[in-house]
Amino acid sequence: MSSSNMVTALHYLLANTAQLTSPRNMITSVLGLSETSLPSIPAKQEIVFHWPASRHLNIPPPFPDFERVSQATLVGIYITPTISTYVHVNKMLTQINQRLYLLSQLKLQGLNIQVLHTLFTGLIMSKIMYALPAFAGQLTADDRQRMGAMSREALQRSVSHTDFDIDEIINSTDRKLFSQITQPTHCLYHLLPPKTSTHCTYSLQKAALLSVTSC
Fold first, then answer.
1. Cα–Cα distance measured from residue 20 to residue 7, given in angstroms and rounded to the nearest whole number
2. How far is residue 212's CA from residue 38's CA, in Å, rounded to a whole number?
3. I want to staple 163 with a disulfide (CB 3.0 to 4.6 A). Which of 151, 192, 196, 209 is the partner?
4. Geometric angle at alpha carbon 10, from 5 and 13, rounded to 5°
5. CA-CA distances (angstroms) from residue 159 to 108, 117, 127, 162?
6. Residues 45-74: pLDDT tens digits?
7. Are residues 108 and 157 in the same domain?
8. Across-strand partners of 201?
9. In a domain? residue 105
10. The whole model's pTM is what?
11. Distance of alpha carbon 66 from alpha carbon 1, whole angstroms
12. 97 to each of 92, 93, 109, 153, 159, how far by Cα in Å?
């Protein structure tokens, strides 16, 4: 598929979000949301996706009566034409900073650290982990560093007694998602490759040991 055809296909897909059923079911299943959570992109808006460094794009004209936008939200995730997470991370960190300030004010009122940590988990960690597998693969090193800085700030403000590693959280959520889609009843199960008929006995650990021994 050429780049111009791909732009057209993605343009058509998003512009007709209201008419899709199967992709919407996939989104709700992956993110653990209900079907009623999806109408965050109005049927009269469209986004044309393209590569960030593309110079010569054959962008199709907008559909009649459709508003072409530079960003929109889908189940709470900010999406842009280049699939960048910069806007989403900025919005998320702004809300997290506001909630950290709220926890700091509660601390001044005499709330103990255990209760503050519980609130930190519910108000901030839930915000960071919300739909994380949907956009974690697009996070840049700077995005991860800024998200990890929230942990250090929370410790400095004494509103949490443990820190977190954003990379470990991403790996954990990815493993959980993969574990879920390996169930035959999951809507994404059919996307997995077929199982091999024979058991694979190849061991990377043994291969590495043999290569070291031969040296």
1. 18
2. 53
3. 151
4. 125
5. 11, 6, 16, 9
6. 788 877 776 667 777 787 788 888 888 888
7. yes
8. none
9. yes
10. 0.66
11. 25
12. 9, 6, 19, 9, 12
